[in-house]
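Predict structure. Input: AA9 family lytic polysaccharide monooxygenase, 352 residues.
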Amino acid sequence: MSFKSILLATTIATQALAHGIIGKFITDGTPNPGFPTDYIYRIQNGNPVPDLAAWSTSATDRGYIEPASVNTPDIICHKDAVPGLLTAKVNAGGTVDFVWPDWPHNVASVLTYIAPCGGDCSNVDKEALKWIKIDEAGFENGTWAGQKLMDNDFTWSTKVPETIAPGNYVFRNEIINLHDAATQNVAQLYPQCMNIAIVSDGTDVPQGVPGTDLYTADEAGILFDAEGDAENYSPPGPPMYVPGATSVQTSPTLGFAYPTLPAAINSTIATNMPLTSIVPITNATATAIATVVPTTLATRTRSAAITTGTASFETVPLYGKCGGKSYSGSKTCVNGSVCRLYGKTYAQCVPK
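Output follows.
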């Protein structure tokens, strides 16, 4: 065998052992193919490939996105991702099973997001999608999510919330390999996307987060000593969707007609930051918070105005933003919740 052949064989074997993609996803028992890497070569050679609901990428090595690239479009659905032309279907309350053939890394977290397309997902702008986290798992009861996936025939199952509004969505299942992730830029992120229509009687349209704002390279769920501190691990990204604690999306890319909301409530979401300490804050101290970070799952419906002293405020709903740089809205949370400071950068109304 020539040196070139040996090198090629070694490279292929290494790629197969070191990386992973979704081979298929199953919606309510119906299998749907993923996007295999050999299709990339078919496309490059001008040969036809079947239409799929899975998104295509240019990752011929079944590789990952490095933490240094989490604020680039590649983190959304992998490198140079393009929407699938078909759309699978699942019922709200049903299950989507993501199959990762021969996934090799047990020290890993697993997350699932959805983003409404507001129409046909086959031509959606991936950078306009707003992602809602519906599933996450890290280290629980002594076992990493990566190990659970491997033990379950390399399959991760996510239940679709019953309360989510019907429509066409992009689903995003992601594994984050945390081996040696205590070192900067060593964690490996493997996002995979597919178009799935949700059949539902639900009405929730939660506020999502742009894909390029889901993570920061050095937040605790990505830059983490998994070998030495596993018990304290929390998956990265925005909070998980909580049924009933939703916010109405107002982005025109969604294709829905929602009322215009006050600027103080409908604030622009910018950059995600890690959650650190939590301490209560008051109206007087909330304005001292420095950097705006994303609010998710905050109810965007207008609340009744209340009067405190000589100033008039609107109550901030559960999970609503109640402080931040240049924030001029109310810091008074709805009954049963309190405005709390997360780290040194962001305040949100949370249950008492």
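Residues 278-351 form one domain.
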